[in-house]
Amino acid sequence: MEKLKKQIGAINQWLTKAEKDRSQLQQQLTGLERSISDLTREARNLKQQAANQQTQLAELDTRQQQLTLVLNSQREQLKKLLRQAWMEGDASALKVLFNETDPNNIARTLTYYEYLGNYTVDQVQAFQASLAELNQTRTQMQNTRARLATTEADVEQRQQELAQTRKQREQTLASLNADIGQRRSERDGLAADQKRLEALLKEVQQVITSIPAPNPNQPFATLRKKMPWPAAGTVVSSFGETYADGKLRRNGLLMHTDTSAEVRAIHYGRVVFANFLRGFGLLTIIDHGDGYMTLYGHASSLYTTTGDWVDAGEAIAQAGQTGGTDKTALYFEIRHNGKPDNPSRWLAGQPAKPGKS
């Protein structure tokens, strides 16, 4: 793992060097998009904490109801015992003993009253224990409610920060788009983005040649037309389509998704890149072994980091608009030995419609 981190570190150093020509606005946009990623992840974790605390609160409430029933039952039993003891009093036992002439009956009578006394003590102790547990449960519920209120307040704060940061991002993106229009044509920018991705993939390939290949139950190559789609959405640009005035061809597919759509790995593998790349935004690259890699771009938040192992169907990111897109989208590629391959040859059927998993 340490060797992997050093090797991937070399890629990140190369990426930093390759992006030194970015304008001040582009650097600001990158920082904002990373902040959005962090805030989204924090809000997601806080919501999970709140859900767990709600579950714990429900369990404590159920236990409180059970203890209340037990206490009511024990209270009634104690009332009966105390009422019986008050009505009979100590004289009742003495009367029986003095009127009894059979020694065997006297012994049985003494044993009975001793048992009755012990039973009463046990009932009182059980009542006290149940009462103590009920008080402890109520205290736990109060503490859990307090933690839940704090967590919900934190979620609200993160959501406000997220909304503010997204607004700032939109303003920065508008300024950036104006700056790009003045500096160069869209075609030149897209061509540069594509070259940058190709250069990154070469760097990644040089590194992963010395990384042990993943060992999935089924090799990637055996799953043509069987793999799940990386997200629910609508394909708006397919593999091989031309863009940038017909000068460039699409090496993958572009999907429009819901704002909260999660991006999932299509196969088992190791994350070899999880960072920002100009033109592709927050980008995840997964190595599946045997020369196969998949790329997932334009995310608003990355759930994994370099070196993580992921399973097929595992959520790795949230779809977004990073990299300059004006709608929530996912850019997806499949590569074999560095060459792009048509995703439709590998993915099963059609993607689920937005809003469905």
From TrEMBL:
Segments forming domain M23ase beta-sheet core: 251-343
Coiled coil regions in record: 15-84, 124-168
Stored CDD domains: M23_peptidase (cd12797)
Protein name (record): Peptidase M23
GO molecular function, one term: metalloendopeptidase activity
Record keywords, A-Z: Coiled coil
Pfam families, sorted: Peptidase_M23
InterPro entries in UniProt: Cell_wall_metabolism_enzyme (IPR050570), Dup_hybrid_motif (IPR011055), M23ase_b-sheet_dom (IPR016047)
Region of interest (Disordered), ranges: 337-357
Gene3D superfamilies cross-referenced by the UniProt entry: 6.10.250.3150, Glucose Permease (Domain IIA)
